[in-house]
Amino acid sequence: MNEIPHWLEKQNDLQPTKVAIEYGEHQSISYSELREESRKLAKGLMKKGVKSGDHVAILSGSRIEFPVCVHALSYVGAVIVCLNMRLSPEELAFQLTDADVTWFIVDPEFVEKGHKAMQSTTLNEDHIVTMDRLPKAEDSIYLNDHLCLDDVFTMMYTSGTTGKPKAVMHTYGNHWFSAVASALNLGLSASDKWLVCLPLFHIGGFSILMKNVIYGMPIRMLDRFDAKVINNGIRHHGVTIVSVVTVMLQRLMKDLQENSYPASFRCVLLGGGPVPKPLLHKASEKSIPVFQTYGMTETSSQIVTLSPSEALRKLGSAGKALAPATLKIFVDGRIAKPYETGEIHVKGPMVSSGYYKKGHQEAEYLATGDAGYLDEEGFLYVVDRVKDMIISGGENIYPAEVESVLIGIEGVEEVAVTGMVDDEWGEVPAAFIVKKEGTDISFEKMATYCRDHLAPYKIPKQLFIISQLPRNASNKIVRRKLFQSVEGEQGHGH
């Protein structure tokens, strides 16, 4: 059997008194305390009836009980189903049922939502546990002291920007190789401290909980994104790495103003989709070490990351596949030439074997559904989701490329682009802009700016000024809802 010692047992053995997690205002927990709490909870849950192989859902924000529950369930041998706290009761009910959940752990803040969701499932009241009443026990009950790398550990639902969400299955091995691959790329320093401001129920946040116990590296856990608090953590509390998405980096830089980060701060890991070039240039001017990365739930977080030495030379690239991973671009079943955009395919030991109840990944490579190209040196540039592509008069237009230009217009706060039906071209791009307070953006201003940066067919033919962009529970823009958000608001263009 492909086994390793339980990672929390290993850290308790190596550095029991070292701080594992900082949380709250000034609270922290050491590796020995984290182990003790997790083992007590594991025994309490087993006494309650939770057993190896059970599917246990967690609905929670980023609070210290979350990692304690995660490690407790690994001691039991249960499978964790991570639920997004932003979902509606109806969406939660679908996932609870689809994932065959038998036990449900709920943050007190979401008890009402949890109960509503349960009403249309087969779960009963005896099988819901709230985090303020977690069962603890001291009995001598056998707990897993080893982890089998082939066993399924977590299930996380893909955002479902189209169709019903699917549960991605991750094994202990997927999480292990994801953490190891990241360390081989970014390096690991004895002084490292990773700040977690991404939700723990998403792979980006969850993967940092894994690094915490696999590396023996302390993490600083925030219950929500707060630019001021994060910048304070980086500048005054020894944070050396932070994982963010584009909108977070924009807010961090806005809050930072004329200040700068200390030399000890070594990495902003930036994922979550294509990034506007102007933002990367601005970060570079302020000497902010931004490393673009590419990954998805199916790849257990990052699978391609720009190495530190190439960060400025290859600005805008997501880098190369991490050490144990391979990457190819396919166009119509053949391998793409350099600079030819096609669909990104990946393989490696961090790639999920498949979706729950949907069969295993049979192909050698995982087709990601994302579009990108490799340059002549093999660096990946992510263009957009394949399904978001606009085909206008036979020309392919990727919304992210147009958005990257539009964000450079003075007064633009946020932007999204999608296709709209056109009698002549089949489809043409339409722009949806959230403008900064006190600014004015006209169609003419936008079109004039775009003429210097885009081919004529890529310039949006319609502009809508809206108050906010429609996003799903993962904070991703839902392009198909853009037109719904402009009902009653006037668009202008030609």
From TrEMBL:
Stored InterPro entries: AMP-bd_C, AMP-bd_C_sf, AMP-binding_CS, AMP-dep_synth/lig_dom, ANL_N_sf, MenE
E.C. numbers: 6.2.1.26
Catalytic activity: 2-succinylbenzoate + ATP + CoA = 2-succinylbenzoyl-CoA + AMP + diphosphate
Domain called AMP-dependent synthetase/ligase: residue spans: 8-356
Domain AMP-binding enzyme C-terminal: 401-476
Keywords: ATP-binding, Ligase, Menaquinone biosynthesis, Nucleotide-binding
Cross-referenced SUPFAM superfamilies: Acetyl-CoA synthetase-like
Membrane-crossing residue ranges in chain numbering: none
EC category: ligase
Functional pathway: Quinol/quinone metabolism; menaquinone biosynthesis; Quinol/quinone metabolism; 1,4-dihydroxy-2-naphthoate biosynthesis; 1,4-dihydroxy-2-naphthoate from chorismate: step 5/7
MF (Gene Ontology): o-succinylbenzoate-CoA ligase activity
Highest taxon above the source species: Bacteria
Annotated function: Converts 2-succinylbenzoate (OSB) to 2-succinylbenzoyl-CoA (OSB-CoA).
Protein family (similarity comment): Belongs to the ATP-dependent AMP-binding enzyme family. MenE subfamily.
Record-linked NCBIfam families: menE, PRK03640.1
Name of the featured protein: 2-succinylbenzoate--CoA ligase
Organism (species): Halobacillus shinanisalinarum
